[in-house]
Design goal:
- It comes from Sedimentibacter acidaminivorans.
- The structure is a single chain.
- With about 180 residues, the chain is an alpha+beta fold.
- It has a single domain, classed as Nuclear Transport Factor 2, Chain: A (Roll).
- Helices cover about 50% and strands about 30% of the residues.
- A 4-stranded antiparallel beta sheet has the order 1-2-3-4.
- α2 (about 45-55) crosses α5 (about 95-105).
- The longest helix is centred in the N-terminal third of the chain and has 40 residues, at about 1-40.
- The protein starts with a helix and ends with a helix.
- The relative contact order is 0.15.
C-alpha cells in the first residue's frame, strides 16, 4: 500500500511539473514581449541627451551616425531575431520615439502593460500578441505629467530554445507624440 501511495505521489509531482512547464512556455514569450515593449516605449533623459548629440554631429561619416543609432538599441537587440532587428533599425521606430520626445521635451515611461494572445497556432514555436502600454509623459520643463496609451502587435518565434521578437507593428501612437503645434 505504501508503494502505491509513493507511486501516486511521484506521478502527481511529474504531472504538476509538466503542467507548470507548459504554462511557463507562454509566460516566457510574454516576458520577452513585455521587455521589448517597455524598452521600446521608455525614453529617458540620457537617450534624449544622446539624440541631441547625434543631431548636432558635424560629420558626413554615415558609419558614425549608424553606430550611434545602433547604440540606442543595445537593450532591444538581444530580444529580437536578426531580421526583426534590421527592420527596427531601418524603420527607426525607437529613434523616432526618442526624437518626438526630445522635440516635445518629454520623458516617457511605461506605467502598465497588457497582452492578449492573437494566434492559436498549433506551431508551438510562434506566438502573437496584441499589446497596450499605458504611458506617463513627464515634462522636462515643469515636471507636469500626462498619461496616454500606445497599442500594437508583437510576434514572437522560438529560436534555439529562446523566444525572440520576430515582428512588431505599432497601431496607435500616443496622442502626445502625434499632436502638432
Amino acid at each position: 500500500m505504501r508503494k502505491v501511495i509513493k507511486f501516486i505521489c511521484i506521478l502527481c509531482l511529474i504531472i504538476f511539473n509538466l503542467i507548470g512547464c507548459s504554462n511557463s512556455e507562454g509566460k516566457d514569450s510574454q516576458s520577452v514581449a513585455e521587455k521589448f515593449a517597455k524598452e521600446l516605449y521608455t525614453v529617458d533623459a540620457k537617450e534624449i541627451d544622446n539624440f541631441n548629440e547625434i543631431s548636432n554631429f558635424k560629420t558626413n561619416d554615415i558609419k558614425i551616425f549608424i553606430e550611434e543609432i545602433e547604440s540606442m538599441h543595445k537593450k532591444i537587440k538581444p530580444l529580437m531575431t536578426e531580421n526583426s532587428y534590421k527592420t527596427l533599425l531601418n524603420s527607426r521606430t525607437k529613434f523616432a520615439l526618442i526624437q518626438l520626445c526630445a522635440k516635445e521635451n518629454y520623458l516617457m515611461q511605461v506605467t502598465d502593460f497588457s497582452l492578449s494572445k492573437t494566434t492559436n497556432d498549433t506551431d508551438v514555436n510562434n506566438e502573437g500578441y496584441m499589446f497596450e502600454v499605458k504611458l506617463k509623459f513627464i515634462s522636462m520643463k515643469d515636471k507636469t505629467e500626462k498619461e496616454d496609451v500606445g497599442k500594437g502587435y508583437i510576434g514572437l518565434t522560438k529560436k534555439s530554445g529562446k523566444w525572440k521578437i520576430s515582428g512588431y507593428k505599432i497601431n496607435v501612437l500616443p496622442n502626445l507624440l502625434t499632436e502638432t503645434d
